[in-house]
C-alpha cells in the first residue's frame, strides 16, 4: 500500500473513532461505562487487583486448615466422609482424598487462626489502599498503620464473616446437594438471600475501607454491580473451577490448583475494583470522557486534577493544574 493509501486508512479510522466518541459522550448509558473503564486503566487497577489476589491466596490455606481442624473436633466419625463429600461439591479445590481422616488438633487450630488472621489483615489493608487510590485520596490524608490494622480487624469480624456465610449459602443452593433437601422455591430464596447479602457486604466494605466522607447512596451503585457479579462468580465457581482445574492438572500438575486460585482471586478483585470505580465516576461526575485527542471534556480535567492532587505527601502541599482554555468544552 502506498503512503497516500495508508494515510487515507488512518484518516478514515480516526474519523470513525471521533464519531463513536461523540456518540458515547452524548448518552449517559454509554459514557458512564466508558469513563469507568478508562479510569480503571488510568489508575492501573489491575496492579492493585494483583496485590489483593496475592494476599488472598495466602489466606485461603490457613482457613482450610482451621476448617478441617474444626470439623475434626465437631463432626462425628461416622459422618466425616459424607461431610467431606459435600464440602467437595461446594469447594472444588478441596480434595477429600488428600485428607487422611479428620482429627481435631489444638496446635493446628491455633496455627491456622494466627496465620489466617495475619494474611487476612494483609488482604484488607491491600483492599483499603486500593479503595483510597480509586478515590484519589491524597497520600497525606491516608490512614496510619495502626488505624489500618484496627479497621482491618473490624472488617474481618464483620465483612469476613458475612462473606463466609454468603459463600456457604450459595454453595449449598448451587451445588445440587441433597444435604438440606432444598426445594426449587428454597433455592430461589437462597439465591435472593445470597445476592442481598453480597450487595450488603460490598456496601459495608466500600464505606468502611474508604477514608473519604461518602454516603450509602454514593456506594450503592458499585455495590450492586460488584455484588451481582460476585454472586454470579460464586454460583458458577463449582462448574468453572471443576472443569478447568481438571484440564489444567493435565498440563501443570500440582501447580494447577495454585494457578486456578490466583486467577480466581484476581477476577474477584477486578470485580470489586470495578464497583469502586463506578462509585467514583458517578459521585465526582467523571463522565463523559474523551476517547481521542487531548483532554477535552470537563470530566477529563477533573480526573487529571484529582490524579495530580493524589500525589501530595504533605497537608501543606498544593498542586495546580492548567489546560489550554481552547481545550475545554
TrEMBL record:
Residue segments, region Disordered: 310-329
Protein name per its UniProtKB record: YihY family inner membrane protein
Membrane-spanning ranges: 48-75, 104-124, 153-176, 188-210, 222-241, 261-282
Superkingdom, taxonomy of origin: Bacteria
InterPro entries found in the cross-reference section: Virul_fac_BrkB
Protein localization: Cell membrane
One Pfam family matching this protein: Virul_fac_BrkB
Keywords, alphabetical: Cell membrane, Membrane, Transmembrane, Transmembrane helix
Membrane topology: Multi-pass membrane protein
Organism of this sequence: Amycolatopsis thermophila
Amino acid at each position: 500500500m502506498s503512503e497516500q493509501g495508508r494515510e487515507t486508512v488512518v484518516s478514515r479510522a480516526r474519523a470513525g473513532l471521533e464519531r463513536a466518541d461523540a456518540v458515547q459522550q452524548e448518552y449517559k448509558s454509554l459514557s458512564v461505562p466508558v469513563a469507568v473503564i478508562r479510569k480503571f486503566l488510568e489508575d492501573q487497577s489491575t496492579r492493585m487487583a494483583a496485590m489483593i489476589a496475592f494476599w488472598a491466596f495466602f489466606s485461603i490455606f490457613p482457613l482450610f486448615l482451621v476448617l478441617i481442624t474444626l470439623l475434626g473436633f465437631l463432626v462425628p466419625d461416622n459422618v466425616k466422609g459424607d461431610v467431606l463429600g459435600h464440602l467437595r461439591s461446594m469447594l472444588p479445590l478441596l480434595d477429600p482424598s488428600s485428607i487422611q481422616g479428620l482429627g481435631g488438633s489444638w496446635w493446628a487450630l491455633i496455627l491456622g487462626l494466627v496465620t489466617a488472621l495475619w494474611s487476612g489483615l494483609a488482604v484488607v489493608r491491600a483492599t483499603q489502599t486500593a479503595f483510597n487510590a480509586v478515590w484519589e485520596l491524597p497520600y497525606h490524608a491516608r490512614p496510619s498503620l495502626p488505624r489500618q490494622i484496627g479497621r482491618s480487624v473490624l472488617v474481618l469480624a464483620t465483612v469476613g464473616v458475612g462473606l463466609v456465610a454468603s459463600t456457604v449459602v450459595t454453595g449449598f443452593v448451587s451445588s445440587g446437594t441433597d444435604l438440606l433437601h432444598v426445594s426449587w422455591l428454597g433455592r430461589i430464596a437462597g439465591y435472593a438471600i445470597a445476592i442481598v447479602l453480597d450487595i450488603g457486604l460490598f456496601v459495608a466494605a466500600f464505606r468502611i475501607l474508604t477514608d473519604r466522607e461518602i454516603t450509602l447512596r454514593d456506594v450503592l451503585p458499585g455495590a450492586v454491580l460488584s455484588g451481582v457479579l460476585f454472586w454470579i462468580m460464586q454460583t458458577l465457581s463449582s462448574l468453572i473451577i471443576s472443569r478447568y482445574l481438571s484440564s489444567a492438572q493435565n498440563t501443570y500438575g500440582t501447580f494447577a490448583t495454585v494457578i486456578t486460585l490466583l486467577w480466581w482471586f484476581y477476577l474477584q478483585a477486578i470485580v470489586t475494583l470495578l464497583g469502586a470505580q463506578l462509585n467514583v465516576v458517578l459521585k465526582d461526575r467523571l463522565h463523559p470522557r474523551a476517547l481521542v485527542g487531548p483532554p477535552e471534556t470537563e470530566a477529563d480535567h477533573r480526573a487529571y486534577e484529582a490524579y495530580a492532587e493524589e500525589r501530595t505527601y504533605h497537608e501543606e502541599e498544593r498542586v495546580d493544574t492548567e489546560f489550554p482554555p481552547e481545550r475545554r468544552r
